[in-house]
Amino acid sequence: VITVKAAAPRDVERVEASIRRAAPGVAVARVQLVPGSVRRVVLPIHDASNVSENAPEEYETGWLAGRRLLLTSAIADADAFERQVVAQGVQLVRHVRFSDHHDFGEGDVATLVSESRHTEGVLCTLKDAVKLAARWPRAAVPLWYVSQTLVVDRGAEVLEQECHRVLAARATTIPTTG
Under a CB-based contact definition with an 8 Å cutoff, are residues 29 and 3 in contact? Predict the structure, then answer.
């Protein structure tokens, strides 16, 4: 399965041709990860006397066009994420990058909040939003994330066959304990 996030079409074709030369009998599927929607992170309530909560908001990616946002990510391919966001028309103020699987601390959040003061919000991935939500201050600009949608370009039948094969093999496996 070739997974395309932000590569140029000719680069994808080159990879696919290399696979076909190296393994001519192997079925190939090609999928894309594309921005799905933009969602505001709902912040958890920490104080029982405070019953207000920011309302969930969700927009199509076109909503991003022209918005001044700070981008942050702690993912392996931060460049691809940035290209996806810029392609949607975001006025990128800055991209604050952390290493993949970074555990955001209070200092990291303070930096993001400080650097986003004159923006319309901070934009990240769902993976990062999950980690940032519990620490995000209510008084800060909104925290948003971009969901990803999987689009099958080629080889849907290959993916379907492989799913059936894996599930059939799983059904014949004897479960163990411990």
Answer: no
Q: Indicate whether 49 pLDDT > 60.
A: no
Report yes or no: 71 and 98 within 8 Å, Cβ to Cβ: no
- Pick 178 or 167 by higher pLDDT: 167
Q: CA 101, 148, 81: angle at the middle one, nearest 5?
A: 60
- Other CB atoms closer than 10 Å to residue 146's CB: what's the count? 23
Residue 52 reports pLDDT greater than 70 = no
Residues 102 and 75: beta-carbon distance below 8 Å: no
Residue 143, phi then psi, degrees to nearest 5: -105, 125
Rounded Cα–Cα distance for residues 145 and 38 (Å): 6
Q: What is the pLDDT of residue 82?
A: 95
Instruction: Give the mean pLDDT of 118-133.
Output: 96
Given a contact cutoff of 8 angstroms between Cβ atoms, the answer to whether 64 and 85 are in contact is yes
